[in-house]
Specification:
The complex is a heterodimer.
Chain A (H helix, E strand, L loop, with lengths): L3 E2 L4 E5 L4 E7 L6 E7 L6 E7 L4 E4 L2 E6 L4 E6 L8 E8 L9 E3 L3 E6 L1
Chain B lengths: L4 E3 L2 E4 L5 E6 L6 E7 L6 E7 L2 E4 L8 E4 L6 E5 L8 E8 L10 E2 L3 E5 L1
Parallel strand pairs in B: 2-11
Antiparallel strand pairs in B: 1-3, 3-8, 4-5, 4-9, 5-6, 7-8, 9-10, 9-11
The chains are: A mainly beta, B mainly beta.
Amino acid sequence: DQQVKQNSPSLSVQEGRISILNCDYTNSMFDYFLWYKKYPAEGPTFLISISSIKDKNEDGRFTVFLNKSAKHLSLHIVPSQPGDSAVYFCAASAYSQGGSEKLVFGKGTKLTVNP
Amino acid sequence: GAGVSQTPSNKVTEKGKYVELRCDPISGHTALYWYRQSLGQGPEFLIYFQGTGAADDSGLPNDRFFAVRPEGSVSTLKIQRTERGDSAVYLCASSKQTGWGTDTQYFGPGTRLTVL
């Protein structure tokens, strides 16, 4: 039973265009959401996050939108660059046992930005 | 270095053997997490340390898995009687745990464990 779902295993876009990566979650206790980027043979790299009290957070070319009623978030990358090609993971957390902020991850979406 | 480091980067072992995986968190980070990533999946939580104590070990799959963090810094994940199904990338992450909202977890490069 996946609590965080990324239904698109892959996405291909042209350089300069917008990339939109989607994520859905089922656990209403989640209060913090993050996006990580992962290159092969490397660990996930933190990209951007959003608290459940907000509906948008922006950092340069990256914007994350949160729709709590739909339990949906998305990552927008504008403009997309070839160096953005990587696997993107959506993750969510809820305060839990012992102060743990353990992350629940989706399966990832492989983004390819074509020159 | 300034980031989370993990050793070894790769470990190949035989079924039934014992392995230890090491994580060196970012200096000053009191929270440390272990995750496991299998092929085609996202990372899955294993265990969380706040300081020296394992405050949440709800993700450990069974009693063959154990982790320690004796001095509140370096952590070791120990797997006894390894099985082929243990083959995965083991990731370590650390965070400041400021107590003000949720703190970003920073990941190491991982240890790729292969059990033959």
